[in-house]
């Protein structure tokens, strides 16, 4: 992370609840070093144990990642960066549009009839569209995501880890965008 990126990112970092006046052990490593390590891992697609010696030990980086994943701090950080970018562009901080894929998803037998639809073209029962309170605006999303090697492979065993790994490339992209003059 460049110094300019760090200057932009530092005030937007979420503070874990345990550090908000509740005490606890101090952080052993600088957040910048930890963020750099996670960014390196996501960008280069390495395993946790293959973390270069320039970064903190892989166990500490993984503990940092796990703590941010479990306390939903990765999403919070992502949302703060997104809001800052949207503010800078003169837009509302929350997205107001969404993209719906028209692909039919075959519904399982356990899916209730109240959420099923019928695709007349393919003659199958499918799951209906559900409005989600927060929607992502997909703008060349998959191209940016697939640039990060970690997402090309399926390393994650937990869905929460896989979800967090999707947020990190977007964090990388937005950090670079915010650091630009």
Automatic annotation (TrEMBL):
Residues 1-76 form the Insertion element IS402-like domain. It comes from Streptomyces griseochromogenes. This is Transposase. Pfam families: DUF4096. It comes from the Bacteria.
């Amino acid at each position: 992370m460049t110094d300019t990126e760090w200057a932009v990112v530092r005030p937007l970092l979420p503070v874990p609840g345990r550090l908000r006046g509740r005490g606890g052990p101090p952080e052993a490593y600088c957040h910048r070093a930890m963020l750099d390590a996670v960014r390196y891992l996501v960008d280069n697609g390495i395993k946790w144990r293959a973390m270069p010696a320039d970064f903190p030990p892989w166990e500490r980086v993984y503990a940092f990642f796990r703590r941010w994943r479990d306390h939903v701090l990765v999403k919070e950080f992502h949302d703060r960066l997104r809001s800052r970018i949207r503010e800078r562009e003169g837009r509302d901080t929350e997205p107001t549009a969404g993209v719906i894929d028209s692909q039919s998803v075959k519904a399982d037998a356990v899916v209730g009839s109240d959420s099923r639809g019928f695709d007349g073209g393919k003659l199958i029962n499918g799951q209906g569209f559900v409005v989600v309170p927060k929607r992502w605006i997909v703008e060349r999303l998959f191209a940016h995501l697939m640039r990060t090697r970690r997402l090309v492979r399926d390393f994650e065993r937990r869905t929460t880890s896989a979800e967090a790994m999707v947020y990190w490339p977007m964090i990388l992209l937005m950090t670079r965008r915010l650091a630009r003059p």
